[in-house]
Amino acid sequence: MEPPVDTVPGFNAVFGGENRESMNDAELLAFAKRVVDRAWADLPPADRSLLEAIRAEGRDATARPLGAYTDELRRSAGYASFPVAEQQRQDAAAGLWIPELRLVLLNVAHPSFQDLDQRSLGWALARVAWHEWGHALAFHRATSEDVSRGRELLALAPPSMAENVRSADYRQREYTHEIVAEVYALLINRRRRGATGRPPWLSTEIYELVRRVVGWNQ
After folding, report:
1. 3 domain residue, yes or no
2. How far apart are the first and last CA of the chain?
3. Mean pLDDT score, 150-155
4. What domain count does the chain have?
5. Tally of CB atoms within 10 A around 67
6. Element (H or E) spanning 58, and its range?
7. What is the C-alpha separation between 56 and 108, in angstroms, rounded?
8. Could you give the strand order of the β-sheet that contains 95-98, starting from the edge strand earlier in sequence?
9. N or C: which end of the chain has fewer CB within 10 A?
C-alpha cells in the first residue's frame, strides 16, 4: 500500500545519530519524546490548530504498559478507574488518546517496537502519534451517524486495513474512529513524501469522510 516510511528524507536526519542498542532506558524514553515532538511539528498547521482547539496538543511517552499507567494518571486527576478488562485492552496498545486528560501517550517499550532499529523505531513512534491525533479529531468531530456506519466503512477500507481492525478486537462502535485514525496517519506520511489528494488505494467515500472529520485539505 505504502512504501517504507524510512525512505522520506529529513526526518531521518533528526533521529539518525544514535544507536538504539547503546541507549539506556532514560535515553530511549528521551528519544521517544523527541520523536513525538517532531511528529507534532510535522502536522499541517491547520491540523495543529484544530487539535489545539480541542486541547489535544498534549503528548508524552512512557516505558510502561498504557492501561496501568493511564489508570494512575486518571486517578490522580480525580477520575475513577476503568474495569480491569478495559485496562488490559489498553495495556496491549502502543498508543492512546486519553480524552479526559487531553493527552496522546505512547509506550516506547511496546512489544511491536522491540526488534526495530533506532531509525525504524523513530518512524514507528511517529506513525502511532499521528494515528492517535487522528483518533482525537475523530473522537470529537465524527457524528453519531459516522460512528453508526462503522461496519459499512470497514467493508470499503483497503483489505489490509480492514483486517487489522477486525483482528485487533475493536468494538463495532470504534470502527469509524479506527479507520479515520489509520487513514490520517497514512495521509500524513504521504504528505511528507510530497503526495497530495486522494490515494488510489482509498475509496472516495472514506477519503471524503476523513476530509470532513479531520479537516484534511492537502
Report:
1. no
2. 19
3. 96
4. 1
5. 20
6. strand 58-62
7. 20
8. 58-62, 103-107, 95-98
9. N
DSSP state of 95: E
Q: What does the alpha-carbon distance between residue 174 and residue 177 come to, in Å, rounded to a whole number? A: 5
DSSP tag of 83: P
**122 and 31 in contact (C-beta within 8 Å)?**
yes
Instruction: Write out pLDDT tens, residues 81-90.
Output: 999 999 999 9
By C-alpha distance, which of 150, 174, 187 is closest to 97? 174
Alpha carbon 91 to its chain centroid, in Å, reads 15
- Domain membership flag for residue 41: yes
Could you tell me which residues come within 8 angstroms of residue 102 by beta carbon, excluding any fewer than 6 positions away? 54, 55, 56, 57, 58
Residue 98, domain CATH: 3.40.390
More confident of the two residues 170 and 106? 106
Average pLDDT, integer, range 121-125: 95
Mean pLDDT, to the nearest integer, of 22-44? 92
Whether 106 is in a domain gets the answer yes
In a domain, 66, yes or no: yes
61 with 106: CB under 8 angstroms?
yes
Which pLDDT belongs to residue 182? 96
Paired with 96 in beta bridges are 105
On average, the pLDDT of the chain sits at 89
Q: Retrieve residue 121's grid coordinates.
A: 523505531
Domain span holding position 196: 8-214
Residues 62 and 71: beta-carbon distance below 8 Å: no
Amino acid at 120: S
How far is residue 213's CA from residue 6's CA, in Å, rounded to a whole number? 28
